[in-house]
Sequence to fold (278 residues):
Amino acid sequence: MTAVWVVVVVVGLATMALKAVGPLVLGGRELPARFTGVIALLAPALLAALVVTQTLGTGDGVVVDERVAGVAAGAGALALRAPLLAVVVVAAAVTAGARALTG
Amino acid sequence: MSATTFAGSAQFAAASVLGAGGGVAAAAASASMLNARYAPIGVSVAPVIRGGALRRLVESQLIVDESWALSRRPDGTYDRYVLIGGGLTLYVGWVGGTAAGAFAGDALGDPERYGLDAAFPALFLALLVPQVRSRRALAAALAGGAIALVLLPFVPAGIPIIAASAACLLGLRGE
Fold:
């Protein structure tokens, strides 16, 4: 088996286990009220972290590149109440345009 | 890979570590760390994933960032049908798109030319905005983003995201 397939299988199994652990252990049960308050904030915290890491991250560091312009344009589209798909397209198009100009 | 690891960022991480000449263990570890967020995410949707153990196991595999964010109701609970139905739709699109990319990818060239690497943060931003309806949600988003930003230059990919989830502990405080 090649290295790539070893990684595919290992990561696949790890991801399945990570996704399954909550529903398997707690499935169908209501969470305690105190816990619900914490979980309610998980989405904003994680999504904000994903925005930051995917806008600035390179896998092993930070770089400010054309993605920043694209995401900023996407934010502008959001402020104008553009639909989700339009926001994504604007961000990609502005990033591609900035790359074409600078590269 | 898309069929077995339904989580895009982990695939990109594994591919980039292998592409940069990193070892198998490093690639698998970094990709798995990126997906560590699915442990708390799974806990958050556990109340709506019901039935026998096998059924819960299968349904839990359809959890993915986008369907999870879309299925969240304003009161902090989750809509089971949006979560599972959205997950299933995304899975078909993801695997189908990967297969199409594998066949036609060479013809398209570098996806960064099309700015596609900026499409994901923009999508997550668009999913984030409707979540920030209270002061506490705003505080959690700012704290989560700040934690990720501070850690990003110093730790392997994935750890900033899982560390940022600690921001949800703000929920322990009263309103």
Remarks:
- Chain B touches chain A through 94 residues (CB under 8 Å).
- The radius of gyration of chain B is 17 Å.
